[in-house]
Specification:
five-stranded parallel β-sheet; Rossmann fold; globular; about 15% strand; Helicase, Ruva Protein, domain 3; alpha/beta; 16 strands
């Protein structure tokens, strides 16, 4: 026999409350009753319920207050009872996380059907969630394809670190797989059934960094029409991954340090701090110790995040991983393109292993996808590889290309600065970067501020 489902019934109309309560008990439900908002709040703090059946108009407040306070725990577990003429309020309740609403007078059979439908929905949602977490945990580090001893040591270390609560600093060049590493660590941690929130720090405009990370209250700035929790609150009880952390402005680094030190987040224009329980993973393709020396990264923040380190070596330093990865990406491309390309011939393999792969695994993946999309032959030969791989001497060297691109970038920055009369905020917007990133680039190119 199926276990009885525990329901909290909040209704100030005593005859209606007693009638609904009696009906539900006859249908094998466990029912706790409350006539007031305060009583309901007290019960919810002490006990757990599968569903809440609640009238929004209560003598001591609005049932929407429960939706606000318990939205995370009871999301889509509330069914609202509403009188004629308050449909708009009921719709608002659904937008805030209620599962459904019923008009009074309540039809008992419709009520029963709604409750059973809600329980079936929640059961399916929970099953899908747990299945997703099981798959994620099972395939965490299996996402890494390698044969090299270097990567074997890195993965073994990451597996060990994943079981600890410590902050992990993941370093490596662009394209080595730092975000995949963070996903694998989270999947194999004790928090794998909680959210993983990834933040690309380089993509957040400087003037929005604080509100994006730590949240804001309604009216905090123009366009803040409602409260926003921020990335840290969304990651509560789970893991937050701060990618490219070196790109955060120094003032935000200081606020981040305070959050990491005391575990509390106060939203922009907020008065109350929220204590968080989360695990922090960070990544950077820059040498943070070098950034500290150049005064681009706070030393105290560096020491705070420098608990455990994982460095992913570049692909050129582990040549034995190149072909296993290339064949893996070819297999994926074959499935996507519905075509059977068997393998790479010997000369193609030799050239792939000899190439330096400045873009690392990401560049290899994109190269294989491009070749496979051409679908010329059943076996990929050297002639199908890009010219940069077939004969690197006929193309500009990586260093030369970087120098040329740097010169183009410097000229473009100078041009925009002159067009905006050195208005750094406007120049940053036009360039599509944060103002702090603009300052860093100006320092890199030895451009003086005016």
């Amino acid at each position: 026999m199926e276990a009885k489902k525990h329901i909290l019934l909040v209704e100030d109309d005593q005859p209606l409350r007693e009638s609904i309560g009696k009906f539900l008990r006859e249908k094998n439900f466990l029912v706790a009753e409350s006539a007031t908002l305060a009583g309901a709040m007290e019960r919810l703090l002490k006990d757990g319920f599968e569903l809440i059946l609640i009238d929004l108009s209560l003598p001591d407040g609005n049932g929407l207050d429960i939706l606000e306070k318990f939205s995370e725990k009871y999301h889509q577990r509330m069914i609202v009872l509403t009188g004629t003429g308050s449909i708009d309020t009921a719709v608002l309740a659904m937008k805030k996380g209620a599962y459904d609403f019923l008009q009074k007078p309540v039809n008992p059979e419709i009520l029963l059907l709604t409750l059973r439908r809600a329980l079936a929905f929640l059961r399916t949602r929970d099953e899908c969630f747990h299945l997703k977490q099981e798959i994620s945990a099972a395939t965490g580090f299996d996402k890494f394809i390698f044969k090299s001893e270097q990567m074997a040591k890195v993965i073994a270390m990451a597996r060990q670190y994943a079981t600890t609560p410590h902050t992990i600093l993941i370093s490596g060049e662009t394209g080595t797989g730092k975000e995949i590493m963070a996903q694998a660590i989270h999947a194999c941690s004790s928090r794998n059934n909680q959210p993983l929130i990834s933040v690309n720090c380089a993509s957040i405009p400087e003037n929005l960094a604080e509100s994006e990370l730590f949240g804001y209250k309604k009216g905090a700035f123009t366009g803040a029409y409602s409260d926003s929790p921020g990335k840290f609150v969304l990651a509560n009880n789970g893991t937050i991954f701060l990618d490219e952390i070196a790109e955060l402005p120094l003032n935000i680094q200081a606020k981040l340090l305070r959050v990491l030190e005391n575990g509390e987040v106060t939203p922009l224009q907020g008065k109350t701090a929220k204590f968080l329980n989360l695990r922090v993973l960070v990544a950077s393709n820059k040498d943070l110790e070098d950034e500290v020396k150049k005064q681009r990264f706070r030393e105290d923040l560096f020491f705070r995040i420098d608990e455990l380190k994982i460095h992913i070596p570049p692909l050129r330093a582990r040549q034995t991983d190149i072909m296993p990865l290339a064949e893996h990406f070819l297999h994926i491309s074959n499935i996507a393109n519905s075509q059977p390309i068997g393998s790479f011939d010997r000369e193609a393999q030799r050239l792939l292993r000899a190439y330096k792969w400045p873009g690392n695994v990401r560049e290899l993946k994109n190269t294989v996808s491009m070749i496979a999309a051409s679908g010329w032959k059943a076996v990929i030969g050297a002639e199908q590889l890009p010219l940069k791989i077939i004969n690197p001497l006929k193309t500009a060297s990586v260093a030369d290309r970087e120098l040329k691109l740097a010169a183009i970038e410097e000229n473009h920055i100078v041009k925009i600065l002159e067009q905006t009369a050195y208005n750094y905020s406007k120049a940053a917007v036009i360039l599509g970067i944060s103002r702090s990133s603009l300052y860093r680039k100006m320092a890199d190119f030895h451009l003086e501020k005016k």
